[in-house]
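Task 17 of the worksheet. Students: predict the tertiary structure of the chain below and write it out as structure tokens. Keep your answer in the requested format; marks are given for formatting as well as content.
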Amino acid sequence: MRHTSEKHTILIIDDDPDFVEALRALAGEEFHLFAATSGEEGLRQYSANASDLVLLDLKLGRGIDGLETLRRLKRLDPDVPVIMITEHVALETARQAGQLGAAHFCDKALSLKEIRLVINQHLHNLPWRRAYRDAMQRQMHPFIGNSPVVQRLFADLDIIAPADRPVLITGESGSGKELIAQQIHRKSARAHHPLLIVNCSNLSPELFESEFFGHEKGAFTTALQTQKGKFEQADGCTLFLDEIADLPLAAQPKILRAIEYGTFSRVGGQREQHADVRLLAATNQNLEDAVKAGKFRHDLFYRLNHLRLHVPPLRERRDDIPLLVQYYLHYHSVTLHRSQPEIPADLMETWQRYDWPGNVRELSTEIENLVLFSRNGKIDRARLRIPVSNQTASPDFFEPFFTLPYEAAKENVLTQFQQAYVRHLVVQHEGNLSRAAEAAGINRSTIYRLLNSSSPHPDDAQEN
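Model answer:
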């Protein structure tokens, strides 16, 4: 864990120099702030020197956009907190960012004070989150579910796991394919050896063969010493290839040969070598279509497809949602060092009706956000990032205000309503304040003032 006296580093990826300078002033002497003006530059900076937190603009002027940059950042480091910032608020875009693992989504129209609060909350809990995730990874997460489709999946897994044959795991992004790979390994004869994980999309096509099969010293200019590849390192173990549809086409025959015969040669080497590896592969793409399009070899597909497990999306196992909610409530409460909040019954019903296009990953991100901003065991409904239909104020919402004098309570409720109303209005009009003001019949300056005001909380009022 980082010593408390050390400064945290923040990488901001934004092509707006005025906003970057405002954040530099906000950071002061508290943080080390590094800036990049494009997604590609930001990825290079993060690869060279990982930061504790990333502020990422959604609309970048050149190169890849914010969502693609977020996707690639999460491949580099799944644990890095990424706060999306933008002047163009759109509910669908915020939802996509949540599915990709964004920790928070901020409108640039909000006050810098509120942005600083979000930054500090994520940085404060960073050591706990990483330490707990490391511990949980060592224990291997269970795949949670009691629904009929999950029970069928478990029954097939119990038959396949001891077979010591390649397995293809299919399913949508965020559905839990890696957890199923872990379960297969844990129930196999290789369970006492490591499970090695390789994300195929992270290996560059030019260097794939060297990284996967290794190279001999002098094989190319930068090969200063002999290097074992991923396949050789997995000798006696289970090797999990995630996103296998991204395998370079030219390397696929060598992968097939390694799977069928366990033989390979390092780049620049003349000697054929052997490794005893059980291969598991996963994809969220349709490999049959990739074969028809000539992007994936049919012989490799047939070899992998001999044993196949399909992980159902969350919308096909809605009965498992309460179990998953309780698991991630506990997980994120410990990770974020928070008291575990209660989830109201009406919200749980809403979650069970929602389709969860980002699957379990999206559910986990939603709960993490609610836990982070909960207070005294109560969630803040304004932090919900999924659409909530027919949501009305419940007694749980008003309860914190009952301890205040009447006028103070009324003023607090009114202020929260005004801010929630205006933010919803701005989202509806995709960030256009003029159209939002016209639709509401109020001045544009009023909307801007409410967006930049700090929302009071009953506990704060009691302290004053």
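Marker's comment: The CA atoms of residues 75 and 202 lie 7 Å apart. The chain has three domains: 8-124, 148-314, 316-463.
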